[in-house]
UniProtKB/TrEMBL annotation, chains A, B:
Belongs to the gamma-BBH/TMLD family. This is trimethyllysine dioxygenase. Residues 139-366 form the TauD/TfdA-like domain. Its EC number is 1.14.11.8. It comes from Mesorhizobium abyssinicae. The keyword Iron applies. InterPro entries: AlphaKG_dependent_hydroxylases (IPR050411), GBBH-like (IPR012775), GBBH-like_N (IPR010376), GBBH-like_N_sf (IPR038492), TauD-like_sf (IPR042098), TauD/TfdA-like (IPR003819). GO terms for molecular function: gamma-butyrobetaine dioxygenase activity. Converts trimethyllysine (TML) into hydroxytrimethyllysine (HTML).
């Protein structure tokens, strides 16, 4: 805790329903009695072993108030009635969890850990790591996982150029999401493809499987062989494109985020996948959460009112134009033994058309961000603890 | 197609930007030229094999208009300019995809396939199937999967009372979502549990893993042994409870759906899971999509403004009271060889405390709704085709 965060005074307000804390940087933050009681850190409220809350909200009297509040040894000590329970809150914990603030965020804001990028800022600094280093050195793994969190994609070099090697990447941080395509799937030109991915055609930048709910939040594509002409991979930061759309056409952005789109896929026997989610998904607080963009599986849009449909389509068109803008595109050609991972809720990927006598053999799989972010947070936690 | 859906007339409007269709039931529905062109069903626009769209929105001229529209053989024939392209739309398809309608839905509406339930309507009609029948008879499987879609849970009888049997259930429709808990996990009382689930305490009705994003959308719990006193399973329809909350306190419902909650779990080494999602998640069109409710992993709420926090907590308390209301609770005691599945985005599950000299051994796993709904839709499609 920095000096900045020193707690100086605690003043009970609103008849014991709140307490106002003063900090030596001049800041004041209020907390509610009920909030403090529910979030008490004592071992009757929270398991000391696993941190889980041991009580339910119904175990806390509805009329809970603060009978006494004081600053002791830099911490806040609170006595609650009618429980007659006294607990202590570290000042740093209170500072980190203060909710008494004025925040004016416009719809489409992104978390601090997210950094948007364009070709200009990213083409020459694609985040990458060697598999051997990432699998043996936790600081290398931390950097690589952190890049996925920050930029939504990263490249991995030095994998075996063999079938199944992509699982080594997901094993670094989490678990494969198995689907009707298998634990992983082949991406190569086929004679009678049931999916356009399995041709030599170029593919417009897209997110994968928007017809699936929940959508796979990560995708890994690993290269076993790539000796064709063309067939480069490209990635586009969907959050950057969404921000650009919002800047030039706020109403269009609002339309794409306010109405669900429909997606569907029924290319294989026994499979009829459908989802109803917006192209630009915002959380209830306006946070930009997920981009879904895929011309191939976009189903008829039936949730936009007639009066808005022309403007909705104009916004969709403009979104597509921006996605195709080379200024947003980062390109690399996967060599045998290389893979890349994309945050499939944010970064679109595309493929250039290919030809020639060579072969292009990739394998793809899905995984989920919960595992990746958890592994990253655990490493960061361990490193912080080791540093202290 | 029923007689009701007969298409009688097509009238071009707004200088070719729209067409108004008349139906013999008196209904009129307008479509936009751009929408019709984008959703054309011809084999240059959609792959005849897999149904995927072969063009992008940028392949369609921005100034696309309808030059001619007529009803031919019950279908709509449209000629687009400047492409000089003529395509036909079956009347039934147009009827099913009409978007020109006035819909006034209040926030919290649910899809037609969803039927809410209470103890009064469900305790004596718990949906169930025998495993042997469900695995051999597609109409039995269809009924069982359909119950999960409609009611959010179902029981399965007649499984082997042995480790791993729960995978037989997920194999019927989809894929296990592997997590840090494994492909499946043991649920039995342990000496030093890292999770309260592994004690003999009762557990408040909850959804699983709200600290995971994406949340596992299905959970299966299978019983291998259950000879204790107590330990009954209960399920509660979260959508029914949310509707009850909304009916008695619309503002409270709005608060729980308008502000994200935070969830976290760090009970095991190497695991630090965190998520930020509301307790009641609505789609952008107000559709009720997901309930997250778990006192154990609810982290401090920091996204609710100070001025709303007391009312937010009051709504959370009331939501919890309703969840505990026996009128919403359906109870059954799993016997060896029985399992149940819950839609973890909707139906909460709980466990009564247990004691006695017997043993209670369950196994649990997660899976996802995309696979279940896809399998169900494919069976329904096959049955419809067979009937025609």
């Amino acid at each position: 805790m920095e000096l900045l965060d020193m707690l100086t005074k605690a003043l009970i307000g609103d008849d014991g329903r709140t307490v106002e804390l003063s900090w030596d940087n001049g800041m004041r933050t209020r907390f509610h009695a009920m909030w403090l009681r529910d979030n008490a850190l004592d071992d009757k409220t929270r398991s000391a072993g696993n941190g889980q809350r041991l009580i339910t909200i119904l175990d806390i009297p509805a009329g809970t108030r603060i009978a006494a509040a004081s600053v002791k040894g830099g911490a806040l000590e609170i006595s609650f009635v009618p429980e007659q329970k006294t607990v202590s809150f570290p000042a740093g914990w209170l500072y980190a969890h203060a909710y008494d603030r004025v925040e004016l965020r416009k719809g489409g804001w992104t978390a601090d850990v997210v950094q948007c990028w364009t070709r200009a800022t990213m083409q020459n600094s694609v985040p990458r790591a060697a598999y051997a280093a990432a699998s043996h050195d936790r600081s290398v793994l931390r950097e690589w996982l952190s890049a996925v969190r920050t930029y939504g994609f990263a490249v991995m070099d030095g994998l075996p150029a063999e079938s199944g090697a992509l699982c080594k990447v997901s094993d670094l941080f989490g678990y494969i999401r198995e689907t009707n395509y298998g634990r992983w799937f082949e991406v190569r030109a086929e004679v009678n493809p049931n999916n356009l991915a399995y041709t030599n055609l170029g593919l417009q930048a897209h997110t994968d499987n928007p017809y699936r709910d929940p959508v796979p939040t990560l995708q890994i594509l690993a290269c076993i062989e790539n000796t064709v002409e063309g067939g480069e991979s490209t990635v586009v930061d969907g959050f950057a494109v969404a921000a650009a759309l919002q800047a030039e056409d706020p109403h269009g952005f609002r339309l794409l985020s306010s109405y669900p789109a429909r997606f569907e896929y029924a290319g294989s026997s026994g499979v009829r996948l459908q989802a109803k989610r917006p192209m630009i998904e915002l959380g209830p607080d306006g946070e930009l959460l997920c981009i879904r963009f895929n011309n191939r599986s976009l189903a008829p849009t039936v949730d936009v009112p007639f009066a808005e449909m022309d403007k909705y389509y104009a916004a969709y068109r403009r979104f597509a134009e921006l996605i195709e803008d080379p200024g947003f595109e980062v390109t690399f050609k996967l060599e045998a033994g290389q893979a890349f991972i994309v945050d499939n809720t944010r970064v679109m990927h595309a493929r250039k058309a290919f030809s020639g006598s060579g072969k292009r053999w990739l394998q793809g799989c899905y995984a989920d961000k919960d595992g990746l972010l958890s592994t990253l947070a655990a490493i960061e936690h361990d490193f912080r603890e080791a540093a202290e």
